Amino acid sequence: MERFSFVSDRANLGKNVSIGVGVVIEEDVSIGDGTEIGNYVVIKSGTRIGKNCIIGDFSLLGKKPALSPMSTAIGKINLLEIGDNVKINSFAILFAGSKIDDGCVIGDRATIRERVTIGRESVIGLNVCIENDTSIGSRCRIQTNAYITAYTIVEDYVFIAPCVTTTNDNYMGRTKKSVEMMKGPVIRKGARIGGNAILLPGVVIEKEAFVAAGSVVTKDVPEKSVVKGVPARPFKEVPEEELLIYQNYYEEEES
Question: Residue 228 above 90 pLDDT?
Answer without folding.
Answer: yes
